[in-house]
Amino acid sequence: MIFRQLFEDSSSTYTYLIGCPETGKAVLVDPALETFDRDLQQLQDLGLELAYTLDTHIHADHLTSALKLKSITDSKIAMPSKAGVGCADIQVSEDSPLNFGTISLNPLFTPGHTDHHLSYLIDQGANQAVMTGDCLLIDGCGRTDFQGGSSSELYRSIQTKLFTLPGDTLVYPGHDYHGRSVSSIAQERTRNPRLKNGTGEDDFIGIMNGLNLAYPKKMDLAVPANMLCGQCPDDVPEGMDRLCEIGVQG
Amino acid sequence: MIFRQLFEDSSSTYTYLIGCPETGKAVLVDPALETFDRDLQQLQDLGLELAYTLDTHIHADHLTSALKLKSITDSKIAMPSKAGVGCADIQVSEDSPLNFGTISLNPLFTPGHTDHHLSYLIDQGANQAVMTGDCLLIDGCGRTDFQGGSSSELYRSIQTKLFTLPGDTLVYPGHDYHGRSVSSIAQERTRNPRLKNGTGEDDFIGIMNGLNLAYPKKMDLAVPANMLCGQCPDDVPEGMDRLCEIGVQG
Questions:
Q1: Does residue A195 fall inside a structural domain?
Q2: Is A242 near chain B, with CB under 8 Å?
């Protein structure tokens, strides 16, 4: 299996490229519009054909390149079913693995950051790996204060769906803001300051309530655009025209 | 391939168990005397036969269980050739991969923490992984102030042998003192405070010279015992008898 972790600077987003050497089929998990050219180049360099794009959730901090990639490569757009994205070709849910070539991506329903969030589990050979999107981050987790977020649900998603995986399972997050790239379930259980062993649900809710995070700069564009698979809506919020220029026009 | 990262509390040591499911053969990298029973149990639980023990270097902070494991399982003791360990069955060097079953462990000569240190590179399926012993640690590195250590050599080992590996290569260190388990070459190149991009050799030497580390508590026993593959020497330093009781008697 081919596995590449790719980084987008402006929103500190990780995109994952997973390729099947036997069939030449590939998937991009959480591809971003800003790195559209890089991702196409990576596919070409590796001799891979993009079969699917797959988002963990409707992002609030960047635009997905799902539709733009589809327009060039004829890839299919896969989205979490509970997000209700009409332009998606495939509605993904926990009971339906996404198979391409000899590879299987297994969705885990992990709401809390958003109400529709999926994490994706994959067998990498020696280890399992889980792409945790904005649910579990290294030493942290996604925020829970918009898009149907819930601290209580996030706590239960992480404790019951992720922390129950084998400790050696590699954790590949959707973002990191401090240059870290990979962790393990054992590590997060041991030292994640918000979630480690002994942290109860009420403790976690208290931590999340105290974060006082700023409103995401791009959210008023990103959420409606991502509901259109990355196409800018007709009504672009003031000052966000530039973001739409690199995207697919509405 | 089976890959397990196992932790020993008292010296914060990681032992790695690597098994070949096809042949049932296994290797333990840096097994410690304190966790001898656990490691035997792990092998048994996984239905694996221990083919080799393999140390990255002569440890100063714990005793290897190489000889004790050999006495029970008939495993062969592999040690870095430049350590000059007479009791080793196999002298390992950079040009001689250690093969067992369908698995190959590729030694990289990475002196600096000690003058004989080897790291071990392994193809895990989707990614390569490198077990870096006490050469490269997560956000850190091994000390360089004894056993033929050299900050200059460590800098060059990391820059030329490890940081030249693909960025997605997983880094599995020999220790972590903060609950972290795994990193990547890209991560260490980006954020290791002693070694990240832009840190010159002189900067690194300055950092290492300023550490003022305490003398390792067990070193006066561990180094001579590990030169005997984990057998306590005739002349046990005062107050260290207990450490020898769990080992193989001289």
A1: yes
A2: no
What is the rounded average pLDDT of the residues B210-239? 92
Q: Which residue on chain B is closest to A190 by alpha carbon?
A: B179
Question: Quick one: how far is CA A162 from the chain centroid?
Answer: 15
Q: Do B127 and A3 touch (CB under 8 A)?
A: yes
Structural domain includes residue A40:
yes
A184 touches chain B (CB under 8 A): yes
Report the amino acid identity of residue B203: D
* pTM tops 0.90, yes or no: yes
> What's the number of domains chain A is made of?
1
DSSP conformation letters of A142-176: ---SSTT--HHHHHHHIIIIITTS-TT-EEEESB-
Average pLDDT over chain B, rounded to an integer: 95
Whether chain A has a CB inside 8 Å of the CB on B104: the answer is: no
Instruction: Name the residue facing A184 among B1, B167, B182 (closest C-beta).
Output: B182
Structure tokens at B230: 């984990």
Q: What is the CATH number of the domain that holds B29?
A: 3.60.15.10
Residues in chain A within 8 Å Cβ distance of B184: 5, 181-182
In a domain, B51, yes or no: yes
Boundaries of domain holding A30: 2-221
> Is position A51 within any domain?
yes
pLDDT tens digits for B24-71? 999 999 999 999 999 999 999 999 999 999 999 999 999 999 999 999
Contact state of B126 with A191 under an 8 Å Cβ cutoff: no
